Amino acid sequence: MGVFNPGLLIDFDCENFEADITVGSGIGFVDLAEITLTVNSPTNAVWLNAYATWVGTSAADFITFQFVRDDNVVLCSAIDSVDQANQPDTTAFSCCDTEVDAGVHTYTLQASVTHPSGGPQTAVTFTMGSLQGAVINT
Asked: Taking the model in full, what pTM does it have?
């Protein structure tokens, strides 16, 4: 029969972004992508996966990514750093939302940039990426 039982996948959504989105240091979180998923039961789990390709202007910068449900519940976050200024890099991470009520929910991939030395304004430009979500019957 395979790995999946019938009815295991309840819903799926995906948003790709390819336009340049520039985030300056110290301005807070900026939305990169948003999806909408329907949860049938509080026993469902939502699996989120994302990647973003970006270029930073300062090797001292840190990028924080987070998944947010319904504009106010931060589910998970990941921090990456600029290895080399003006060179592309890619960050990917996943998260499960296992405490969500039944209903329609939005999930947003957000990013912020921190320049730890408090020096001049720096920025990261996100050139492409994707946010995917699946509701699983558990």
From this structure: 0.91
